[in-house]
Amino acid sequence: MAARRFSLFVRSTTIIAVLVVAAGTAVLARHGSARFLAVLGGDVALFVGILPNVLAGCLIGAFVTQLLPRDAVARWVGAESGLLGIVVATMAGALLPGGPVTVYPIAAAFLAVGADAGAAIAFVISWTLLGYSRALIWELPFFGPDFVAWRVLLACPLPILAGLLARFAMRAFPARTQERA
Amino acid sequence: MNLALGVMLWTVAAALALIASRRSRVLLHDGARNGATEFLFLLPRLTIGVIGSGFLAEMLPQHLMAQWLGPGSGPVGLVLASIAGAFTPGGPVVGFAIGATALKGGAGAPQVIAYSTAWALFAFGRLFIYEVPFMPARVVWLRVAVSLPLPFLAAGAALLIGRP
Question: Does the predicted interface ipTM exceed a cut of 0.85?
Fold first, then answer.
């Protein structure tokens, strides 16, 4: 598992690195070194700014994995938790603070301690579409309250729908699910 | 805002560490070590992703995107908007900036909703930098598959009710 994860990591990091080097070269060639340095400087500042949050996210993920009571998770968001489990997962995703570095480790922790894939999927989708921290910090300044409110309202049923679809898909193809799980 | 979020995250992390330390010293030690290991594991990828995202955004044909996402672009516009969302590199700044630019440049609200929903669900950068390494691969692809109709549902609902 660790070896597989490492090779996936190397492969996808290589793809991103190639894209970045190509884009960086193109910016330098088209817009000159002043623009190149301005973009680089802005990104480095952003990177240094988020590092403490990333470390906090990793620690939260690690402690949540240790502290979550497995039987409670299985009861609340396990395969037998029904529609309520998916709704609970959706609410948890909308309320959770932080970025991808917090959300995916926690979703993986949910899966490891007995949540079903439908609930984990509803959780992840809810965080991406409804997460309040993302909407407040990023979306509101760009779009204004009216657009954001309607966008979020229209998105409310989507994580639940996707979670139910995922459960349906897993029941339709149970053999493959068990084999890989 | 970044600072406020940081304070909030570290408060949660500290509270969890406190709960762990009350249960046992070993639990606290293991949690801190696992979290730090994860952080070091992510660091090279984050460095490339975050520092590189600005270059990727700089190379986007922004004026063309606003044109393709116009209110008269119909279902084709929704499909294009969803594909553009998935291919938008970089962090939330890039995705929301492009969506807002498109809206100001005359794109239709349903198209922009399709764009930002697809970007939230499928953005390749986030998918490969964060989701694939953290989550079991099968769950990730199942998640992507069941998410495919969602941008169209959100945009369709916006078209139906005529809002925003």
Answer: no
